[in-house]
């Protein structure tokens, strides 16, 4: 092997799926290696790509010269490059885009100027202070920026003439221009994301009045503080702290990385069931070969303790470990639990971190300083050295699937990665996905069960309340049955707590016209707008478009507008009416605005500041609050009627998970599920907490209909702003798939269940195949056709193993 290379093949984040060859300048010829990032010219642009190969074979056409090498050492080592190739192939995604989403460092060199909300902007949008009449564009624009910073070009496109508006918002101090998204000063993160550490008043330094006030407060309240919370207590704290941090008078740290060890739980000796599961995992680790386990443990059976012990075992064997958790579960509390057990050996990886935060954690793992990676979906690519164990908690969770290119499932990638690394995988859940459970039958993984709760605590008793009967008896179409209200009232009397699930946010599900029957729809999407009373606005849950409630029907001009259905906001409101003395907290995407709001609300509930916690599916996951003895489900039916073959599975999982929040400690728990489908098997099995029975039923349905796991499936969506373009392209798809081979079934093309989304028309085609390779081949043909026919880059969506068909 020469140590001197003239050429490199580079993978670039472009739709054309092949490597590009570049010539190296003299200075770089002995410094490159596969997996390093490099900046190269591409057309009139400069792109960052990943080197796949360095060589001395002159290409047939003259190669352009590479510009700048970004890494002295590969960011993607050989095995991760190979994993990237697998992902690209299996999910039919361009390799360059896969590699870009794998290496969290790519953003470091992006130099775009983007508009971002200032702290003031964040708090204003939260309170919607600028709801002055005629100012709706400003609100919409701020709402958009609340999700992420955007370039002026993008904003201009969405809001023609935005330039002037941007200037005026900047003057008001609501937004600011960020020179460079990635290399930006971490101190410029929003206050909610920063934590203040103060070591004491430095001698002989001049402080402003604001700074003196801040110092006075910090001296009286030692410890670290979240900057957003400080701002509420000390006026101008955010500005003062930033100014002081610049002079090294105090330290500002990214908040999410500061694990909160006060949540640490005592270490438990494993009970016999946990021990038996652990022993199996340990044996596989010792044997040093690949094995997947499915750990099915009922809610409250102590799965976390098994994970912790397994990670300890891996570390003892001098191997690294990865723990993947669902998006919502990765909180400072959870991080704290791992820190208290494994100290600085833990690196926390969250897709919500900015690039430099992620890069920092990534480096700690790569250098071996940290040996345990804990993170959400994308952490499956973390460079853990000598990987021995991957745990996927709540393996059925939908957040493991990435809903943009590359559309990989972190759980499945984990299995592939482990197989290559000769590592052990543990998939844990109380409600495993059908696919994972079926893999046990197929001998692909081994089942470990924790059939009972720890400490002989009983499972909660579950009762279904038939809301049709309730209506017949009371002649009232209320949100709550008499039984549920009574039960909640009794819990308040006895000082116990209630969790109440309403899996839809907002106040009313939609607004309709009594004259013509039309619902008010989003201008960008073919979906009904949801009424949010706090903002007094109609909101699109798909694209965040917001508008006022119209005075007259936009279709027929009638004044008879009325509100239909209900959401979590209304549940809270009605509950106040029924139980005026109850202290109620609400947890949904409307109340969880900042990074720490989720923790704050949940923490407040845990400390007993509230009697009732109302919320969407957010309240169903993972937490363990001792005093919760009643779980109510306002409508067990939401989701059942979705046009998706997984709707029953989802409903079952959600109901079982939320029921599992009740009676986890010394007090026994009760669950009341209101429903109009009490005979539906998903609801019945959830009520009986019988996973086995649900699995058998659902498997029958899947087998009969040839849905996964009995086929390999892909969803093809064609989208375009003009309907005729979308139609033309989906017509071509129909032609290409016209004469399907044996073992392949094509459904569609047809209008997608949401036929218009974010201003694009959408047509979808489902492909079911008996053979995975055949499916893969077919999908590659489609993609090649899109390239040959010069479709816009975003027009064709290929979703392999789709989790959602909406
Ligand atoms: P799961 O994730 O299976 O629903 P958790 O891991 O949250 O359950 O455990 C439920 C509770 O039981 C937690 O409070 C945990 O600290 C406690 N626990 C776990 N294992 C044991 C044990 N062996 N003995 C006593 N308590 C335990
Ligand atoms: Zn009308
Ligand atoms: Zn919309």
TrEMBL record:
Signal peptide: none
Subunit structure: Component of the replication restart primosome.
Domain of life: Bacteria
Reactions mediated catalytically: ATP + H2O = ADP + phosphate + H(+); Couples ATP hydrolysis with the unwinding of duplex DNA by translocating in the 3'-5' direction
Gene Ontology CC terms: primosome complex
Biological process, per Gene Ontology: DNA recombination; DNA replication initiation; DNA replication, synthesis of primer; double-strand break repair
Pfam assignment, any one: Zn_ribbon_PriA
Primary role: Initiates the restart of stalled replication forks, which reloads the replicative helicase on sites other than the origin of replication. Recognizes and binds to abandoned replication forks and remodels them to uncover a helicase loading site. Promotes assembly of the primosome at these replication forks.
UniProt: Zn(2+) 2 binding residues: 522, 525, 540, 543
Domain Helicase ATP-binding: residue ranges: 284-450
Keyword match Cell wall biogenesis/degradation: no
Name of the featured protein: Replication restart protein PriA
Source organism: Paludibaculum fermentans
Family: Belongs to the helicase family. PriA subfamily.
Domain Helicase C-terminal: 548-705
